[in-house]
Amino acid sequence: MKRFDPRVRLPEFITALFKDVVWRLDESERVVYLTFDDGPVPKVTPWVLDLLRLEDIQATFFCVGENVMKYADVYQRILDDGHSVGNHTFNHWQGLRKGDQDFYGNIEKAGIYIDSDLFRPPHGWLKFSQYRYLKQQYRIIMWDLITCDYDSRIKPDHVFRNITDFVRPGSVITFHDSIKAKSNLIETLARAIHWMKEQGYRFEAIPYNKRINSRQ
């Protein structure tokens, strides 16, 4: 029996409250969806892109608008390499701690730089009012499995075990291309990809559309 860890996979009674959020994709095939939050940053994201290119994998990057503005060349490489992108707010704001209108404004500010209809809230937290509004504007993507690579208190073997214990067909898997996650990410990502390939999984990016009003 696999272990239960609510930090890695939220209980179904919670995910059921947000019916219009994507937690998991096609369950009928052995396909998984790698996603990376909080970049782009020059000290981490290019390393991830190099590995994905080597492994012939397409992934999805949920980018912080401020980082896209600062590191436009790294962001452009994400696009040039054919990966999907999504909005992760401009300043990595958590919705629970912000007024609704300020939060929406921060997302739209990020949308000036990130032309995508995908959105992932930082830390996965949204007020119900924000959820009801944003699901009309974006396709909200959460995760089926979060690796916890950002947690410096756990070792790479623990991050790897989070993947082997919880991955399943259709899993949306969250890593972080951030300075905080760098050590665990570098020690774990290639190992996890190779293990999943050995288990017969293939990898796809989450499709996205450009938003008509994002660059007016």
What does this structure look like?
- With 216 residues, this protein is of the alpha/beta class.
- It has one domain (12-203): Alpha-Beta Barrel (TIM Barrel), CATH 3.20.20.370.
- It is 37% helix and 13% strand.
- It has 8 helices and 8 strands, in the order αβαβααβαβαββαβαβ.
- The chain has helices at 12-15, 45-55, 65-70, 72-80, 100-111, 128-137, 156-166, 182-198; strands at residues 31-37, 60-63, 84-87, 118-119, 139-140, 145-146, 172-176, 202-203.
- The strands form 2 sheets. Strands 1, 2, 3, 6, 7 and 8 form a 6-stranded parallel sheet that branches. Strands 4-5 form a two-stranded parallel ribbon.
- Helix 2 (45-55) packs parallel to helix 8 (182-198).
- The chain is globular, with a radius of gyration of 16 Å.
- The relative contact order is 0.22.
- The model has no long low-confidence stretch (mean pLDDT 95).
Secondary-structure map:
Layout: H1 12-15, E1 31-37, H2 45-55, E2 60-63, H3 65-70, H4 72-80, E3 84-87, H5 100-111, E4 118-119, H6 128-137, E5 139-140, E6 145-146, H7 156-166, E7 172-176, H8 182-198, E8 202-203
Parallel strand pairs: 1-2, 1-7, 1-8, 2-3, 4-5, 6-7
- Helices and strands, in N-to-C order? HEHEHHEHEHEEHEHE
Structural class assignment: alpha/beta
Relevant CATH superfamily: Glycoside hydrolase/deacetylase
Q: What's the helical proportion of residues?
A: 25-40%
Q: Specify the overall morphology.
A: globular
| Overall strand count | 8
**Biggest sheet statistics:** 6 strands, parallel
- CATH architectural grouping: Alpha-Beta Barrel
